Automatic annotation (TrEMBL):
Thioesterase domain ranges (all copies): 26-247
Organism: Streptomyces althioticus subsp. attaecolombicae
Keyword Hydrolase: yes
Keywords: Hydrolase
Family the entry assigns: Belongs to the thioesterase family.
GO molecular function, one term: hydrolase activity
Keyword 4Fe-4S among UniProt keywords: no
Name of the molecule in the record: Alpha/beta fold hydrolase
Length: 265
């Protein structure tokens, strides 16, 4: 049972968007490139009382705006995993990441497993398997080319892209995240032991069926694929369904771990 008295222990880069002091399981959410923890605020608010959703806050944005973005994606994962292992005993944990967040979640899962504290499940969304990550040069393009790429993928609301001041404010972070994604190369490692779910839009140009199938190679715990109607940001239309899926996975994990029910909700 989660103890309310210790519920505000150090969480490092993770943000407790909507507290669930009696949670029996938790879901850790990893944002897409250019995204921040606040993207997941509606998800956390929709979570039931017994599952808590926490969101990773990458360096260089929101309340970590002044912090330097790591040189590569492995550095991002190292910092996040260190915060989690410093957190002490924890509830059964499901990791979820979309787009760049998918490989961040995967790399964090590897580090948690190596520390003897593997997640109970990994759910990845909108990204090819690590070994099939696409090379790219978007991060080397001009500001105009970068904005055009954001329009193409619907990664940012159009009203923001039409505001020159806002674009100049967040474009450095976008460019840095493209660099992290486009230069990422997985390091050969042991397979995960937890099950993996792979979610993606059926019209997403950033991932094809065979690239989604490649996720089967990262785990010995089984892998399930599920497609949704939509493009790269299918999550906007299917948020409720994905939150329900993550909640079900987390609850199943808490039941398997025999986490006791709290005396009062």
């Amino acid at each position: 049972m989660s103890d309310p008295a210790t519920h505000d222990r150090h969480l490092g880069a993770f943000r407790r968007l909507t507290p669930r002091p009696y949670a029996r399981a938790r879901v850790l959410l990893f944002p897409h490139g250019g995204g921040s923890a606040s993207y997941y605020r509606p998800w956390a608010a929709a979570a039931p009382w017994d599952v808590e959703f926490l969101a990773a806050q990458y360096a260089g944005r929101e309340d970590r705006y002044s912090e330097q973005i790591p040189a590569d994606l492995h550095g991002v994962a190292e910092g996040l995993a260190a915060d989690l292992t410093a957190d002490g005993p924890r509830l059964p944990t499901v990791l979820f990441g979309h787009s760049m967040g998918a490989v961040v979640a995967y790399e964090v899962a590897l580090r948690l497993a190596a520390a003897g504290e593997p997640p109970t499940r990994l759910v990845v969304s909108g990204h090819p398997a690590p070994a099939l990550t696409r090379r790219g040069r978007v991060h080397l393009g001009t500001d105009e080319e970068l904005v055009e790429e954001l329009r193409r993928t619907d990664a940012t609301h159009r009203d923001i892209l039409d505001n020159a001041a806002l674009v100049q404010a967040f474009l450095p972070v976008i460019r840095a995240d493209y660099r992290l994604s486009e230069t990422y190369r997985p390091v050969p490692s042991l397979a995960l032991c937890c099950p993996v779910d792979v979610l993606y839009g059926d019209a997403d140009p950033e991932i094809h069926d065979w690239e989604a199938e490649g996720w089967r190679e990262v785990t010995d715990g089984g892998c399930a694929l599920r497609t949704f109607e939509g493009g790269h940001f299918y999550l906007e239309e299917h948020r409720e369904t994905v939150v329900e899926l993550l909640t079900a996975r987390a609850r199943a994990a808490s039941e398997e771990a025999a986490v006791p029910w709290p005396s009062a909700p």
